[in-house]
Amino acid sequence: MSILIENEAAMITLAESLAANINAGDCFALHGELGAGKSFLARAIMRSLGVTDEALPSPTFAIIQEYDANDGLKIAHMDWYRLEDVMDVDNLGVTEFFAAPWVSLIEWSERAPELLPQSTTHIYIELDDTDINTRHIRIEKP
Ligand SMILES: Nc1ncnc2c1ncn2[C@@H]1O[C@H](COP(=O)(O)OP(=O)(O)OP(=O)(O)O)[C@@H](O)[C@H]1O
Ligand SMILES: [Mg+2]
User: Fold this and answer.
1) Separation of 38 CA from ligand 1 center, angstroms?
2) Judging by DSSP bridges, how do beta strands 102-107 and 2-5 pair with one another?
3) Domains of the chain (ranges plus CATH)?
4) Distances (CA, A) of 67 to 71, 72, 84, 120
5) Could you read off the pLDDT of 64-113 as tens digits, one per residue?
6) For residue 81, which atom of ligand 1 is closest to its CA?
7) What gap in Å lies between CA 53 and CA 72, rounded to an integer?
8) Res. 54 pLDDT band, cuts 50 70 90
9) Which of 12, 105, 124, 131 is most buried (most C-beta within 10 Å)?
10) Residue 42 Cβ < 6 Å to ligand 1
């Protein structure tokens, strides 16, 4: 499925429709270059799920941030950018976040794609050549 997003408001609308179909245990891999909007989309999804507070303290703060959402759901927003390889990611014990009550939103999963669950929804965000607020989105569900 391909979607043309023309501004941040449209990205928030997309986040709301994604959030409406999210269940505990779901994993989303957000792909795109630096500044594509992966964090923007992740935060918009979290807000749609009822996250209002700051990130809960986490020992692996920069890499995994944990949030409480509505209905007992918990969100793990991860950024694997600074990790070197699969061993690094694996050592974080990320697999616990791939089951209920967690929903995982992962940036730079390219560092260790083999650790993602088979059921991961992949969202590709591409910049536009001419308009700085436009994004081209592709969503791939298994
Ligand atoms: N339609 C849009 N959707 C999302 N972000 C947009 C849009 N238009 C402009 N932006 C801006 O693009 C930037 C996206 O930054 P963001 O931090 O989300 O990127 P990122 O993909 O997470 O990058 P990084 O790989 O560094 O983590 C923000 O400054 C945001 O305001
Ligand atoms: Mg980011």
Assistant:
1) 6
2) unpaired
3) 2-140 (3.40.50.300)
4) 12, 11, 25, 20
5) 999 999 999 999 999 999 898 888 888 889 999 999 999 999 999 999 99
6) 25
7) 14
8) confident
9) 105
10) no
